[in-house]
Amino acid sequence: MDGSPSVGRLTRDERAEGWRAPGQDHGWLNPLYERFLLRLLVKKELRVRYRGSVLGMLWSYVKPAVQFVVFFIALGVFLQLNKGMPAYAVYLFSGIVVVNLFGEVFGNCTRSITGNQALVSKIYLPGELFPWSSMIVALVHFVPQLLVLVIGALLYGWVPSPTALVAFVLGMLILLLLTMGLGMLGAALNAAYRDIENFVDLITMVATWLSPVMYRITLVKDSLGDSIWWWLYALNPLTIAVELFHTAFWRYGPLVVEGAVEDPSLIPPEGPFGYWWVGLLTAAAVFAIGTVVFERSKRRFAQEL
């Protein structure tokens, strides 16, 4: 024996410097331990997505802008939903950015394993890096939309406040936990059953219209009354996230400036943050379920692809 280290094992000095033996799996903490690989995957996804594109990142502005114009004309002007609702443009766009982020994170995460088939089946990479990199790419696209929303709200007299900040943070936390949980669950199932990604598109479309994005939630309450259907709608985490964004950029912004905040039909009776605790608990449960299913399925990804 010459005292040299065995293949695949690290010396004491290498361990002291933070080196790790290749192939170690840290489960759902892999994105934290493998930050360098995560950054590489994010850069790869951004380059691939905009390869050969003339507008590039400008599509982050074009798509929500077209959505906003279509919805505002069809619903705000033709159906006159903007009448009697102050700053309807801010109300509408603050909901649009939520459902857009929901749809992109959910859809991209679901397709993250099948979309990286060559990497998953040929080399070892922690499986969690793929849905997490997809989520980060979606956040990169979300930032320009958020910037447009902030500028639009400022034009209506919005001034940042502690209430608005807390509502925004809660809304983002609920939204990301929910979408990452659903996305990791979808990614695990989509590796075995390709039909799942088609269901994701349907769910995103339904979520856009069943969330209080283009209409006030009070209209739903008036229609459903105090039935079980109303409570299922009101306690949906996506509904709660949309309403928290409304609180952040609409209720405690333009409505205060225009003096309409006293209107009881514009402020939820349960307070400015609504049922945020229900949304947070539900989203956390979905995230935990999605993570567990993904962890148990990832070892079969190479064979299933």
SSE order? HHHHHHHHHHHHHHHH
Radius of gyration: 22 Å
Major beta-sheet overview? none
Fraction of residues in helices? 55-70%
Ends distance: 43 Å
Which runs of at least 5 residues are low in confidence (pLDDT < 50)? 1-8, 14-18
What is the typical, i.e. mean, pLDDT?
Answer: 81
How much of the sequence is in beta strands? under 5%
What assembly state would you assign to the polypeptide chains in this entry? single chain
Give the number of helices. Answer: 16
Q: Give the count of structural domains.
A: 1
Question: Tell me, what's the shape?
Answer: globular
Structural category: mainly alpha
> Total strand count, please?
0
Keywords: Cell inner membrane, Cell membrane, Membrane, Transmembrane, Transmembrane helix, Transport
Organism: Brachybacterium huguangmaarense
Membrane topology: Multi-pass membrane protein
Family: Belongs to the ABC-2 integral membrane protein family.
Model description:
By secondary structure, this protein is an all-alpha fold. It has one domain. The protein is 69% helix and 0% strand. It is built from 16 helices and no strands. Helix 5 (88-110) runs antiparallel to helix 10. 37% of the residues are buried. Residues 1-8 and 14-18 have low confidence and may be disordered.
